[in-house]
Design brief:
By secondary structure, the chain is of the alpha/beta class. The chain is elongated.
Length: 492
């Protein structure tokens, strides 16, 4: 791959992609839902059968998404005005016998603002290729997860730390005035630069490790999909291995990110952390953050047992588990976990906001299924938290959100149905639920936009149910705080 030559072909390549309508909607229309689903499963035959009848768009699908060797004439027709020889010289294509095939991955991506094209190294999912030590990751599940998790409200400046091929940075140009992208891998920066040129967006690209390239600078938003693989600190592939022991990469990111945020600035970071025997993972992650000046919402989306975790990442690097050398690596990895009493590895998102107040950190499991993206929810969470910091809930009025539902579960008992649990559910966002008792249900039922303030509602409830008012206050205040944090009730 020649960086300068690759940049020089981006304009004619863009013309070809637009002319052939190499975009997500048209590709789905051509392939149909079944073949498109097969593409997501890395099953080439149904895709190839559908693409054969797709003319020049079909050629591009076979060339870049299936890794097929295609005839020079049909590739020339699909890529015009880009010459095949120029594409080969730049490293986009390579000769394969009498035909040519893709040397880089080029695929359309729509993150909600129209199609963008991403250039990266081939991932070997359909056509086997060796993984380079400086491999540039493309549009994988982690990057897609982060795309859906990044807040997209308008900001002036964004830092994408560890940009890879530039997925997050290009997306950030939709909502930021300027975007700075960094990476320790020069090949990443070259492909990110070409990706930006292909999409006609501007990025500031800086080479260096972690926050070193932006020392002394602050941003309104930081996004990061860093090399967070939990291991013994061995670097095999720069896109995933940090060289830091266990969850040291995530610790470094979270402990330093706040220093690079403007006041009120926010960060959205993919991270992982170990679950250690007799240790609360929440306390572990919270300990990485400063005691003053940051609000944090830490969301655990999954936990893998050590064996599954090690096997998954070994296979990610093309390692064959039947190879004795690979088995030895797995043994050493698991021995390292055992020596540190690691019971599992958690994975999720960390949202940060820089404040001038004592730090408020909430770490919680969100391993249940939900479909709404978390980006907007994170901003709303910080706004609700700021309101709670500035107000005494006892003097405020609240309303139950229209999509909050009350659920009661009954089981058979000796005297008929017996209630075993009552809980309130939020109908959108992360679909939170809180278990409550009958008194709490009655309290929520009394919340009205034009009704009593919380202190008056509690007093009325105490009289109606012959309860001690002070005891009800002690129970109601933390409940209301939790329900406001999670957006099940709202101040009015």
């Amino acid at each position: 791959m020649d960086r300068d030559l690759l940049l020089s072909i981006c304009s004619p390549l863009r013309t070809a992609l637009l002319r052939c309508r190499y975009d997500t909607d048209t590709m789905l229309e051509l392939l149909g839902p079944d073949a498109h689903a097969a593409l997501g499963r890395s099953e080439p035959v149904p895709v190839r059968r559908a693409a054969v009848r797709g003319g020049e768009l079909g050629t591009l699908i076979r060339l870049f998404l299936l890794g097929d060797t295609c005839g020079v004439d049909e590739v020339a027709a699909a890529l015009a005005p880009l010459a095949v020889d120029a594409a080969v010289a730049a490293g986009l294509l390579e000769q394969d016998g009498a035909g040519v095939r893709a040397a880089l991955d080029l695929r359309p991506l729509d993150a909600g603002t129209g199609t963008r094209w991403m250039l990266s190294d081939l991932d070997g999912a359909i056509r086997p290729v060796p993984t380079r030590p400086d491999h540039v990751l493309g549009v994988g599940q982690a990057s897609l997860s982060l795309l859906r998790a990044i807040p997209a409200d308008p900001v002036r400046t964004v830092l994408d730390l560890g940009t890879g091929c530039g997925v997050q940075a290009v997306r950030a140009t939709d909502f930021a005035g300027t975007v700075t992208a960094t990476d320790v891998n020069p090949r990443c920066l070259a492909l990110a630069e070409a990706t930006a040129a292909l999409n006609e967006v501007e990025l500031e690209l800086l080479e260096g490790s972690w926050f070193e390239p932006v020392a002394g600078r602050r941003f309104d938003r930081i996004v990061a999909n860093p090399p967070f693989v939990v291991s013994a600190g061995r670097v095999e592939h720069s896109y995933r291995d940090s060289g830091l022991d266990l969850d040291g990469a995530s610790k470094l990111m979270l402990s330093q990110a706040v220093d690079h945020l403007e006041p009120g600035g926010t960060a959205a970071i993919l991270a992982s952390w170990v679950h250690v025997e007799d240790e609360d993972w929440r306390a572990r992650v919270a300990s990485w953050l400063p005691a003053h000046g940051v609000d944090a919402w830490i969301v655990q989306r999954d936990v893998a047992d050590p064996a599954l975790y090690v096997g998954t990442w070994l296979q990610d690097g093309d390692a064959d588990p039947r190879d004795p050398a690979v088995a030895d690596r797995a043994e050493a990895w698991l021995d390292h976990f055992d020596s540190h009493r690691v019971e599992g590895v958690g994975f999720g998102f960390v949202y940060l906001r820089r404040t001038d107040a004592p730090s408020d950190v909430l770490a919680e499991d969100l391993r249940h299924g939900f479909t709404d993206p978390l980006g907007a929810e994170a901003i709303a969470y910080f706004e609700r938290l700021a309101w709670l910091r500035d107000h005494d809930v006892l003097g405020a009025r609240f309303a139950v959100r229209a999509d909050t539902a009350l659920e009661r579960v009954f089981l058979p008992g000796e005297d008929g149905w017996r209630q075993v649990v009552a809980r309130v559910h939020r109908g959108d966002g992360p679909a939170w639920q809180h278990e409550i008792d009958d008194l709490a249900a009655a309290l929520l039922a009394g919340m009205r936009p034009d009704g009593l303030v919380l202190e008056e509602l509690i007093a009325l409830l105490a009289v109606a149910h012959d309860e001690d008012e002070e005891a009800l206050v002690e129970q109601a205040v933390p409940l209301v705080h939790g329900l406001v944090r999670h957006g099940l009730i709202e101040p009015v």
